[in-house]
Amino acid sequence: MHPLAYNHLKKIMEDKIIVGSDETCDYYPCHFTGQDCTWCFCPFYPCEDGQTGGEWVKTKEGGRIWGCSDCYWLHKSEVATALMAEFKKYGIETVDDIEKRDDIKKIFAFLKKKFPPNKRNCSMQNAESK
Ligand code: SF4
């Protein structure tokens, strides 16, 4: 895991609070106005699931990397909150737990079923102001 992601998730897992919209961030809104910033670095990365809006993008070096720019799903308040609840339910309390536990895949599948990813679920006004 990238150190920036590790440090962000470490704080989130310690504080166990939903951040909401972080308008102090220089990059806000990186997805859509009103987005939830709790999972700025995604615990599912790289999910490799295009239904979320994520996709493989080419790098300058000719490789490819999983890109999350068009994933609005995890930044919707209800999904962000439900993920925190699932972590609590499964006793996932640290970044190491996120990295090691197979339950992460189960949680991803559960959340996708409960909150089917669909960019159109976000306010289009918000989406257009991206
Ligand atoms: S596409 Fe969305 S769910 Fe998948 S890794 Fe990126 S932010 Fe996470």
Structure description:
This protein is mainly alpha-helical. The protein has one domain (3-124). Helices cover 38% and strands 6% of the residues. It is built from 5 helices and 2 strands; from the N terminus they run αββαααα. The protein has a two-stranded antiparallel sheet with strand order 1-2. The longest helix is centred in the middle third of the chain and has 14 residues, at 77-90. Residues 121-130 have low confidence and may be disordered. Residues 42, 44-47, 49, 52, 54, 68, 71, 73-74 line the site of iron/sulfur cluster (SF4).
Strand order of the largest sheet: 1-2
Give the number of helices. Answer: 5
- Share of helix among residues? 25-40%
| Average pLDDT taken over every residue | 90
Beta-strand residue percentage: 5-15%
Order of helices and strands: HEEHHHH
Question: How would you concisely characterize the structure shown here?
Answer:
The protein is mainly alpha-helical and 130 residues long. It has one domain (3-124). 38% of the residues lie in helices and 6% in strands.
Topology readout:
Blueprint: H1 3-15, E1 55-58, E2 64-67, H2 77-90, H3 95-100, H4 103-114, H5 124-128
Antiparallel strand pairs: 1-2
Helix pairs in contact: 2-4
The site of iron/sulfur cluster has 12 residues, from loops.
